[in-house]
Amino acid sequence: MTPKPAGTLSWNVAEIAKALKITESDVRNYFTDGRRVSFILERRLAYEVLKGRLAPSEGAGYDLIDSNGDKWEVRSITRGGIYFSPSYMVGSGRSFKEKGFLDKLKGVKGFILSDVESFPDVPFWIVSSDQVRKWWEAGQLGTTTKVSREKILDLLR
Hints:
Blueprint: E1 7-10, H1 13-20, H2 24-31, H3 34-49, E2 53-54, E3 64-65, E4 71-77, E5 82-83, H4 98-107, E6 110-115, E7 121-128, H5 129-137, E8 146-147, H6 149-156
Helix pairs in contact: 1-2
């Protein structure tokens, strides 16, 4: 059973492949890689869902600003899972710090979680920072806020 999303973003794989002059397989590989597709997801979510805009820079500490001026983070749900800590804490040689994570929660209204594994029809959920904090305090996000795809879909139920 999959939790009910707030909405779904859909793409036409054949049209993308034709426009970019690449194979449909390459399109699927690109659009299911959270690091790559995030730039496209952010734009569609900002304009179509939030009726807002992108952050002024990649280093802003948030991804989107909605029509009310609230700040949002966009995260992709992939085979490798999802994380809620700031991106500067994720990757080789980087470490998780609870204070930085909690500061991140204070700085954004919430997260928009997109299940890119479901491409070309990508469901998304809008989750408040308060909800993420509750998951953290209940020990449901592990020790570094990185959880599996199965776990986050379960939490979204």
